[in-house]
Design a protein that fits this description.
With about 180 residues, this protein is an alpha+beta fold. The protein has six helices and seven strands, in the order βααββαβαβαββα. It has a single domain, classed as 3-Layer(aba) Sandwich (Aminopeptidase), CATH 3.40.630.30. About 35% of the residues lie in helices and about 30% in strands. α4 crosses α6.
């Protein structure tokens, strides 16, 4: 898996030290994980699946995390070139990347890229099990939206901070990085 052996991904559990996680660029993302029960509670109740990226060289410190849940895409909101290739339904199943953050101490060291590839892998696994056509994210701001565009996402025409990437694009992205031996 991309990022190994240094980084390992696990579903959030009681054994993970959430209190030491810092993300000062986006305090709400830090609070979500470090709150004494919020992320753990949502994970346990399957409101969202919370995955942590652990740094095995630092005693399994949480280097970052992301959350995944289910959502739908409305055909009228999707770019025409994508929508015309799909069946005519009122909505299509998709996977939602709800939150994603990296620890401050890992800025510029790769966990952001590793997290997105790991989220792609989980989304593709969900698609195999339940049927979904894309991963959707609501960017917090235009800077983050631009970062997601650099990862292959496309904005919805009517809502530029809501972006999506198709399963085929995610699979190609993961394959390209895996073949190159990165990140």
């Amino acid at each position: 898996m991309i990022g190994e052996p240094r980084f390992r991904q696990e579903r959030l559990g009681q054994q993970h030290d959430r209190a030491s996680f810092t993300c000062t660029r986006e305090a709400t993302l830090e609070r979500y994980l470090t709150d004494p029960g919020r992320a753990a509670r949502e994970n346990k109740r399957n409101v969202s699946a919370v995955y942590v990226l652990l740094d095995t060289t630092q005693g399994d410190r949480i280097a970052g995390y992301f959350t995944i849940s289910n959502t739908t895409l409305i055909p009228a909101l999707v770019p025409v070139d994508v929508a015309k290739k799909l069946p005519r339904y009122d909505s299509w199943g998709a996977v939602k990347l709800g939150r994603m953050a990296r620890h401050d101490e890992y800025a510029g060291l790769g966990p952001g890229s590793i997290l997105i590839v790991r989220a792609f892998s989980v989304a593709l696994s969900v698609a195999e099990q339940s049927g979904s056509l894309a991963l959707v994210v609501d960017a917090k701001n235009e800077t983050l939206a631009a970062w997601y565009v650099n990862q292959g996402f496309r904005p919805l025409p009517e809502s530029p901070l809501t972006l999506f990437i198709t399963n085929a694009q995610m699979a190609a992205y993961v394959k390209a990085l895996t073949s190159a031996g990165e990140p």
